[in-house]
Amino acid sequence: MTIFSKTTLMTSGALLCATIGMATSAGAEELRGWNIHVEDYPVSIAMESFAAEVADKTGGELTAKTFHNGVLGDQPDAIEQVRLGVIDFGEFSLGPMGQAIPETNVVSLPFIFKSIPDMYALMDGAAGEAIGEGMKAKGIVPLGWYDAGARSFYNSVQPINTPADVAGLKIRVMSNDLFVQMVESMDGNATPMAFGEVYQSIKTGVVDGAENNPPSYESTNHYEVAKYYSLTEHLIIPECLCMSLKTWEKLTPEQQDIVMTAGRNSANLQRELWAEREAASMEVITAGGTEVNAIDDKQPFQDAMAPVYESFLADNPDLTDLVNLIRNAE
To answer: Signal sequence span per UniProt (predicted)?
Structure first.
């Protein structure tokens, strides 16, 4: 059952109906979009809003149909299909884009964003422009930056308030060298494993904990076996509503303006819906007995990441200016 209000769902349903109605207009060009999420997820509702606005503002000349639940393929394949113009648009995490677009790797650096509002300001400004240029060079046009929340540590042993509290803990991480280095830099034991194995692994003591955003921590019931949730917010990896450059270049300047505006509007809607989703998840885990602690001073964590940054910039010296732009932002 969705956690969104009936009003939100009715609105999204109306937007979807409007879009479908436009798609039947004579002579309309229908754009195909990729989305991995279910239909009532914040991303999905925002993408339907984007489609409805494009159809409305172009008078039905352009329509867009989003294929939810990953039915057009997995994320790495879909990113490549968008680059090639086979799929017209999609909503992607910037994390998996790094193999093709080096600039997007920067947002996977731990603690590079100080907070969610900090991420919004930077991605809507100079950092987003710089990353966007890198994306365009590889065939993808960003239309709006979506919020995927902040990932924080949770475990079955103790609250984490300082890097020293991570020492000795066995923490499941995503299969990425940056995330392994992040935990090891605090003397923890990083354990990459499939996400579906985490619940049982914590329950049986194979690992002590993991890290993720509140909706994932709550919806997977990980809070049942890992009762300490520490708001380190160490990874804030934005997502992108993107269009194929090949599709973009087929649009008239007026259509491009409409599509870009609709993308930005959809991002604002998605951020609002995501905030609602996070708040509801926090209520569930608190009611379930989770001990949640905020981190008053993140500087010690940021300082502990020095080896991670040194290694990353040694391998990617051309990204130094972009990393400093984000890290030094006030």
So the answer is: 1-28
Confidence of residue 23 (pLDDT cuts 50, 70, 90): very low
Helices 42-57 and 253-287: crossing angle in degrees, nearest 10, is 160
Residues in CB range of 232: below 8 A, 6 or more apart: 152, 153, 160, 211, 295, 298, 301
94, burial (CB in 10 Å: exposed 0-12, middle 13-18, buried 19+)? buried
Closest CA to 190 of 204, 203, 175: 175
- Tokens coding 33: 């979009």
Distance CA(46)–CA(32), nearest Å, equals 15
Token pair belonging to 41? 């997820």
Please count the CA atoms within 13 angstroms of the CA of 41 that sit on its side-chain side.
18
Q: Say what the pLDDT of residue 330 is.
A: 76
Query: What residue spans define the domains of the chain?
Result: 6-147+238-280, 151-235+288-327
Does position 245 have pLDDT exceeding 50, yes or no? Answer: yes
Architecture of the 151-235+288-327 domain = 3-Layer(aba) Sandwich (3.40)
pLDDT tens profile 265-274? 999 999 999 9
E strand residue ranges, 109-267: 140-146, 151-155, 170-173, 189-192, 209-212, 228-235, 239-244
How many CB atoms are located within 10 Å of the residue 30 CB?
17
pTM: 0.85
What pLDDT score was predicted for residue 27?
A: 55
Give, in order, the Cα–Cα distances in Å from 124 to each of 5, 112, 325: 28, 16, 13
Length of the chain: 330
Within 8 A by CB and 6+ apart from 139, the residues are: 82, 83, 84, 85, 244, 245, 246
CATH number for the domain whose boundaries are 6-147+238-280: 3.40.190.170
pLDDT band of 26, cuts 50, 70, 90: very low
What φ, ψ does residue 231 adopt, rounded to 5°? -80, 65
